[in-house]
């Protein structure tokens, strides 16, 4: 057996980073088990609050400006439907280095290629090559739907009324699908396929990578009774920023809340959160099945296990749901827990340094003894596993958001103390995180913060230049809307 470790990745979809924090009401015993035996990275963020760009960054070690995936690759509005030409994924490099790679679950990296095109063996693949976006309908389909009688009557609990679009059920409870509650769900088929392949992987001579990608806890939050009954909505607190009026924030944030989410009563918001936590607990139970199956192979000690997500979910924060153009923490902060008994020193630690999706590809390559391509923007996390914090580790997190199915140009720069958001479609945001950790008060226009804002804008331009983010450099009068232009980032630079 090779001394190179195996790698098991369990990536959920749309899970808040906070749910695995110590003391959080959401029950995640298996993520807690991993953390007690490994490391919990408490400041892990995605560069883009959307499935496709974030997953592409995970696979390539690059920011969207380099890998080219900017929004949903499965829709007619996709800017690009796949990775830029010449982009390499970590899986191809590990395959060439002798690893066996097996994929079960959500892909959503490219609509032109599937996992098999990038070095993986495919078990069950969702959102794969040639996928059709489930919510997209052609004009002819809309005409056909228009002939159907539209649902009438009072709004139901947990329902969002959307005339002409089709009403939306945000959360709900379904009967258990067996003793575990979830045996009849698609996510469990993905997990079972992974569990079933583990003995075969363990019997082989090659080190392996197994990717397990369920679709939960992505909205809608529809969960079996077994898990919904674990939470009493009456005991669920509203998010600390739920009563944010959004009056000092971009109008599109206000529109999202007023048009849709303000329909929910406070009791319904509590119920939605309870169902979301129940969904996270269900995914955690499936994680536990994978961990138990790994233990049964005898290879757990030399396997790096990573539990994480692609992006977060607002789930009532600021009165919002889902993800997308708002730049608040809840959509960008993701869980990340690692365990590797033979490779992690001093297990049971929490790490509070900023890490992001671009850091995983270089980590996997260093583990495998494969040279890390110079073009990768991320850095290997192995020093943290060895309990050796790099003194030059990043102190700033950057995002690159270009919209989802509607286009919005948005960039953010976050340090420990402040967060600046450049909105190309509206006025900017600035939050003093020292005094306002829940991002309630926009201080972007206050005179006493102008030098701080200017320094963060300077950082934005420097990072954009470094990452080839040319979309925001256009000087034409209708789009040159940053308060200080690109020259600000190069003043005094050699």
Question: Would you write up a description of this structure?
Answer:
By secondary structure, the protein is of the alpha/beta class. It folds into 2 domains: 6-385, 3-Layer(aba) Sandwich (Alkaline Phosphatase, subunit A), CATH 3.40.720; 415-490, no CATH class. Helix content is 28%, strand content 16%. The chain contains 14 helices and 19 strands. It has helices at residues 29-37, 51-60, 64-67, 90-96, 139-146, 186-203, 225-228, 251-259, 266-297, 329-332, 360-368, 382-385, 450-466, 487-490; strands at 6-12, 39-41, 44-45, 100-106, 121-126, 159-160, 168-169, 171-174, 208-213, 221-224, 303-309, 333-334, 336-339, 349-351, 355-356, 397-401, 410-414, 418-423, 429-432. The strands form 5 sheets. Strands 5-4-9-1-11-13-2-14 form an 8-stranded mixed beta sheet, with helices on both faces. Strand 16 (397-401) and strand 17 (410-414) form a beta hairpin. Helix 6 (186-203) packs parallel to helix 9 (266-297). It starts with 5 loop residues before the first strand and ends with a helix. 49% of the residues are buried. The mean pLDDT is 96.
Low-confidence stretches: none
The largest β sheet comes out as:
8 strands, mixed
Count of DSSP E strands?
A: 19
Task: Supply the CATH superfamily name of the largest domain.
Answer: Alkaline Phosphatase, subunit A
**Radius of gyration from the alpha-carbon trace, in angstroms:** 22 Å
Question: Total domains, how many?
Answer: 2
Alpha-beta content class:
alpha/beta
Q: What is the CATH class name of the largest domain?
A: Alpha Beta
Fraction in beta strands: 15-25%
- Proportion of helical residues: 25-40%
Largest sheet strand order: 5-4-9-1-11-13-2-14
Query: Which architecture of the largest domain does the CATH hierarchy give at level 2?
Result: 3-Layer(aba) Sandwich
Distance between the termini: 51 Å
Q: What name does the CATH topology of the largest domain carry?
A: Alkaline Phosphatase, subunit A
Please state the average pLDDT score.
96
Shape: globular
**How many distinct helices?**
14
């Amino acid at each position: 057996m090779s001394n190179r470790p195996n790698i098991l990745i369990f990536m959920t979809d749309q899970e808040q980073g906070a749910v695995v924090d110590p003391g959080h009401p959401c029950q995640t015993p298996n993520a807690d088990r991993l953390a007690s035996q490994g490391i919990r990275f408490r400041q892990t963020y995605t560069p883009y609050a959307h499935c496709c760009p974030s997953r592409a960054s995970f696979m390539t070690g690059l920011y969207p400006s380099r890998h080219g995936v900017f929004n949903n690759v499965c829709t007619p509005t996709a800017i690009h439907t796949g990775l830029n030409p010449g982009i390499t994924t970590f899986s191809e490099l590990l395959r060439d280095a002798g690893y066996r790679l097996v994929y079960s679950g959500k892909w959503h990296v490219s609509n032109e290629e599937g996992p098999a095109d990038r070095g993986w063996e495919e078990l069950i693949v969702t959102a794969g090559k040639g996928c059709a976006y489930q919510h997209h309908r052609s004009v002819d389909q809309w005409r056909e739907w228009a002939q159907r009688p539209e649902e009438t009557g009072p709004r139901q609990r947990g329902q969002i009324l959307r005339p002409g679009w089709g009403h939306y059920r945000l959360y709900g409870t379904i009967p258990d699908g067996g003793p575990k509650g979830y045996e009849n769900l698609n996510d469990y088929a993905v997990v079972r396929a992974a569990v079933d392949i583990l003995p075969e992987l363990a019997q082989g001579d090659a080190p392996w990578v197994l990717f397990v990608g369920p679709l939960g806890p992505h909205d809608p939050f529809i969960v079996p009774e077994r898990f919904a009954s674990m939470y009493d909505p009456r005991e669920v607190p509203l998010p600390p920023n739920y009563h944010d009026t959004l009056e000092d924030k971009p109008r599109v944030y206000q529109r999202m809340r007023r048009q849709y989410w303000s329909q929910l009563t406070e009791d319904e918001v509590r119920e939605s959160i309870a169902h979301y936590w129940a969904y996270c607990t269900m995914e955690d139970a499936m994680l536990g099945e994978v961990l138990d199956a790994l233990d049964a192979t005898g290879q757990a000690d030399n396997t790096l296990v990573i539990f994480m997500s692609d992006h977060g979910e607002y789930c009532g924060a600021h009165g919002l749901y889902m993800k997308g153009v708002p730049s608040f923490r809840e959509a960008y902060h993701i869980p990340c827990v690692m365990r590797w008994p033979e490779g992690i020193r001093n297990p049971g630690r929490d790490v509070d340094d900023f890490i992001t999706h671009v850091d995983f590809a270089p980590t996997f390559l260093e583990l495998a003894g494969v040279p890390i391509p110079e073009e990768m923007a991320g850095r290997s996390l192995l020093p943290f596993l060895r309990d050796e914090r790099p003194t030059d580790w990043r102190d700033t997190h950057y995002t690159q958001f270009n919209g989802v199915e509607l286009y919005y140009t948005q960039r953010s720069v976050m340090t420990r103390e402040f967060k600046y958001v450049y909105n190309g479609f509206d006025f900017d945001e600035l939050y003093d995180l020292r005094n306002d950790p829940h991002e309630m008060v926009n201080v972007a226009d206050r005179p006493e913060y102008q030098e701080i804002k200017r320094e963060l804008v300077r950082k934005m331009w420097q990072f954009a230049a470094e990452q080839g983010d040319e979309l925001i450099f256009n000087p034409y009068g209708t789009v040159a809307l940053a308060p200080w232009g690109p020259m600000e980032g190069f003043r005094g630079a050699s």
